[in-house]
Amino acid sequence: MQAFVGDGKISGGGFRRGEGACQGCPVDGGARVRDDEVAAELAQPGARELLERAPMSRLAYNGSDGFPRVIPIGFFFDGDAVVVCTAVTSPKVRALAERPEVALTIDVGDTPADARSLLLRGTATLETVDGIPPEYLAASAKVLAGHELAEFERTVRGMYDRMVRISVVPAWARYFDFGAGRLPGFLRDLAARS
Hints:
Layout: E1 4-5, E2 8-9, E3 15-16, H1 35-42, H2 45-53, E4 56-62, E5 68-74, E6 76-77, E7 82-87, H3 91-98, E8 101-108, E9 116-130, H4 134-140, H5 146-159, E10 162-168, E11 172-177, H6 185-193
Antiparallel strand pairs: 1-2, 3-11, 4-5, 4-8, 6-7, 7-10, 8-9, 9-10, 9-11
């Protein structure tokens, strides 16, 4: 791993997309890492499962008043970006247009043995689209099927003339599987000392 804070290595740090080699890679909180490291983190089977199957994420961003927000929101992963969709009048649209830096968490598990979490950071790209973005319906199809999905689609098509598609290509990623021992570095270090 090529992740650094100042001159010290991040223990168990995540991965940030760069331009290949770490010289000249974009920096996130002092961490320098490579595109292939982000891809490797996202390719973890558990991370893939969360991206493809989990119905909810938590999106963190700074509101227009400068204070942070964390909201639960359905999402769809298109293979490159996490996509969430919302009304054009949503407060997050204005806030993200001003401050597009975001973090997302996708997690599951009710016990420590089952707890899995994918943490992502990136820059939101906003696109206003006519009608309903296909990603919005695809995200809904994770939890709805058959008649329920058809009714949901009918309802939202009558509700929204336009929506905003918010895409976040992960620039930093970290996958944890607590039951399998894939822990944050500080916890791994504490466990090793006990």
